[in-house]
Automatic annotation (TrEMBL):
<comment type="similarity">
    <text>Belongs to the LysR transcriptional regulatory family.</text>
</comment>
<keyword id="KW-0805">Transcription regulation</keyword>
<dbReference type="GO" id="GO:0003677">
    <property type="term" value="F:DNA binding"/>
</dbReference>
<dbReference type="InterPro" id="IPR036388">
    <property type="entry name" value="WH-like_DNA-bd_sf"/>
</dbReference>
<dbReference type="InterPro" id="IPR000847">
    <property type="entry name" value="LysR_HTH_N"/>
</dbReference>
<dbReference type="GO" id="GO:0032993">
    <property type="term" value="C:protein-DNA complex"/>
</dbReference>
<dbReference type="GO" id="GO:0003700">
    <property type="term" value="F:DNA-binding transcription factor activity"/>
</dbReference>
<protein>
    <submittedName>
        <fullName>LysR family transcriptional regulator</fullName>
    </submittedName>
</protein>
<dbReference type="Pfam" id="PF03466">
    <property type="entry name" value="LysR_substrate"/>
</dbReference>
<feature type="domain" description="HTH lysR-type">
    <location>
        <begin position="2"/>
        <end position="59"/>
    </location>
</feature>
<dbReference type="Pfam" id="PF00126">
    <property type="entry name" value="HTH_1"/>
</dbReference>
<keyword id="KW-0804">Transcription</keyword>
<dbReference type="InterPro" id="IPR036390">
    <property type="entry name" value="WH_DNA-bd_sf"/>
</dbReference>
<dbReference type="InterPro" id="IPR005119">
    <property type="entry name" value="LysR_subst-bd"/>
</dbReference>
<keyword id="KW-0238">DNA-binding</keyword>
Length: 310
């Protein structure tokens, strides 16, 4: 009989490519991962791995087994959901990942509603960049997470995970009000961005989706931004824009609050889409479903019209 825990290790190896990466992600030693995979090969009765230098490649049999592992793990998530439903009454920890703007603007109201309806549930929020969510969900560090994707950085399909749409928000170019004149209505997005091709730019830190979004939007407009500052928190980004330190692309939830007369916001033809992500098969888990319902009720009215497909 194949061991589910070893199948999970094989799946992670298929995603990460090295024993060391699997060990780091799952808090094991590399030798322990290697030993467990060797046991799995003996259980399977044929080679599952081919070693090429420091990397490990799955054999065709190993790749086929990973597909079965995905199905098995999804069914186990469904079984846990059914058992939680049968027990009745939500209790215990719910580990939630969220990015900063959602943590500030939406999550607190959702948690308040969740506490009123399910006082035995203990939500635990951790700010997590969406780029790191998939690994955290698959490894079990998170149960559910808010993730976003941009028009220029679409969400990649992540095996073993599922997602449901929550809302969409507009994107803006933030520029010093004392700078170039505001573009006339109807000017296309590329022209708006190209007008600032020679200006210094403020982006998020490399490796984040927000950084990739700005880089790709500018490249689509025909130039590579000259980055002066790398800042992840949008309130700080807008403060730097107001100080004349550069221009930036920011989402709608990043510009809430009193308008700063030193910052000019020009709406772009871009969207940021926010989804609720979880392990495949876990969408019907009562705790996940309850949190999703609370989130949808907490979406600000100005974003309600952006739900659903374009």
């Amino acid at each position: 009989m194949l061991d589910v825990r070893r199948l999970r290790l094989l799946r992670e190896l298929a995603r990460r490519g090295t024993i060391a990466a699997v060990a780091e992600a799952l808090a094991f030693s590399p030798s322990a991962v290697s030993q467990q995979l060797a046991v799995l090969e003996r259980e399977a009765g044929l080679p599952l791995l081919e070693r090429t230098g420091r990397r490990v490649r799955l054999t065709p049999a190993g790749q086929h087994l990973v597909g079965h592992a995905e199905a098995v793990l999804e069914r186990l998530e469904q079984a846990e959901s059914d058992l939680a439903e049968a027990r009745g009454g939500l209790a215990g920890a719910l580990r939630i990942g969220a990015f900063p703007t959602a943590t500030r603007a939406i999550v607190p109201a959702a948690l308040s509603a969740l506490a009123r309806r399910h006082p035995g549930l203990e939500p635990m929020v951790r700010e997590t960049d969406p780029a790191a969510v998939a690994h955290a969900l698959r490894s079990g560090d998170l149960d559910v997470a808010l993730v976003h994707a941009y028009d220029f950085v679409p969400a990649a399909r992540e095996p073993g995970l599922a997602a449901e749409p929550l809302y969409r928000e507009a994107m803006y170019l933030a520029a010093p009000a004392a700078g170039a004149p505001e573009p006339p209505p109807g000017v296309d997005q590329g022209a708006v961005l190209r007008a600032h091709a020679e200006d210094p730019w403020i982006t998020a830190t490399p490796g984040t989706l927000c950084h990739a979004m700005t880089e790709r939007a500018c490249q689509a407009a025909g130039f590579t931004p000259r980055v002066r500052h790398r800042v992840d928190e949008f309130a700080t980004v807008l403060a730097l824009v107001a100080a004349g330190q550069g221009v930036a692309v920011v989402p709608q939830l990043g510009v809430t609050g009193p308008a700063d007369p030193a910052v000019r916001l020009t709406r772009l033809r871009m969207r940021r889409r926010t989804n609720l992500a979880f392990r495949s098969g876990a969408g019907a888990h009562p705790a996940v479903a309850a949190f999703g319902a609370a989130l949808r009720a907490a979406v600000p009215p100005e974003l309600a019209g952006f739900r659903g497909p374009e």
